[in-house]
Amino acid sequence: MADAPLMVGKFVLVTGGTGGIGKATAIGLATLGARVGITGRDPARTEAAAAAIRAAPGNPAVDGFAADMSAQAGVRRLAAQVLDTYPRLDVLVNNVGGFWAHRHLTADGLEHTFALNHLAPFLLTSLLLDRLTASVPARIVTVSSGAHARGRIDFDDLQGARDYSGQRAYSQSKLANVMFTYELARRLEGTGVTATVCHPGVVRTSFGAEDQAAYFAVITRVARLFMKTPAQGADTPIYLASSPEVEGITGRYFVNRKPKAFYDTTATARLWQASARLTATA
Ligand SMILES: NC(=O)c1ccc[n+]([C@@H]2O[C@H](COP(=O)([O-])OP(=O)(O)OC[C@H]3O[C@@H](n4cnc5c(N)ncnc54)[C@H](OP(=O)(O)O)[C@@H]3O)[C@@H](O)[C@H]2O)c1
Q1: Which of 86, 140, 220, 252 is deepest in the core (most CB within 10 A)?
Q2: Spatial contact of 46 and 66, defined as CB atoms under 8 Å apart
Q3: Is 170 an active-site residue?
Q4: What predicted TM-score, i.e. pTM, was given to this entire model?
């Protein structure tokens, strides 16, 4: 008899699953047999994406959860809905994120890039942690970017209030994803919940389309021809979420399924404390 698909019986949440890398990740994990929840801002678009994935071969089980994750009230409502709907949570894929060329404020008065790319996964993970811990072995996979290597955490101006650049804010938020994962892995040592982080590659998606820098639009039109497809970009997140090869591996950054160099972690605790203050989870 053929082996059962790898993720049968597992419950997975993929944030930002209506398009791009998140949708491809949701399709991959649903095809492996998981019940998958996806999130998006707009209820109709979120349900349409869930229905499109459900219609794919393999009869995948997919639920849509609508929430604006740039607002902390939205993240809290989303977590409550997921806890009500899923009796267990085996994998959380923190994929939601984006790039904004200009500085925008969220409903909480926070800078949008930092709030959505870093504080939303920070808060959602904290709100779902008990359910993940009750479902061990469980995994938390966060989608960062190679741009984190150009990032610097400006503790004196986390919100880019003094001097905003889209690229700087994005790189900072993606470095925050990596540092968050290292500190999370340290805090979860011995619990059976692992935390890994990855770069998906440069992928042809709607990334940055809402508020694009002019130069970026020109570069992107040409570069799109050479970019990975969303399915190719989802390969490493799916691998980290499901493969027995990475069972028990924690606190590592992956590119193309391979762990990469270890980074300095001296500021991770400081960033954790600042994030906990900003999300009232301290
Ligand atoms: N594309 C790349 O080359 C690349 C490279 C490195 C890293 N990444 C990372 O990969 C992740 C996914 O990027 P992508 O390229 O797939 O982006 P994308 O095509 O723009 O998809 C973004 C997803 O996030 C959702 N979303 C956006 N704002 C939201 C909000 N406020 N609340 C809830 N959901 C929201 C979108 O759903 P709705 O629009 O339906 O709300 C969509 O499902 C990001 O973390 C990005 O930093 C991407």
Answers
A1: 140
A2: yes
A3: yes
A4: 0.96
What share of the chain has pLDDT > 90, as a percent? 84
Convert the pLDDT of each residue in 74-130 to its tens digit.
Answer: 999 999 999 999 999 999 999 999 999 999 999 999 999 999 999 999 999 999 999
Ligand 1 geometric centre to CA of 207 (Å)? 6
Q: Are 14 and 21 in contact (CB under 8 A)?
A: no
**Whose CA is closest to 52, among 36, 34, 69?**
36
- Residue 111 is given by DSSP the state B
Determine phi and psi for 21, rounding to 5 degrees: -65, -35
Coil, strand or helix at 180: helix
| 199 CA from centroid of ligand 1 (Å) | 13
Which pLDDT score is estimated for 191? 98
Beta carbons of 194 and 252 less than 8 angstroms apart: no
For residue 146, the tally of other CB atoms under 10 A from its CB is 16
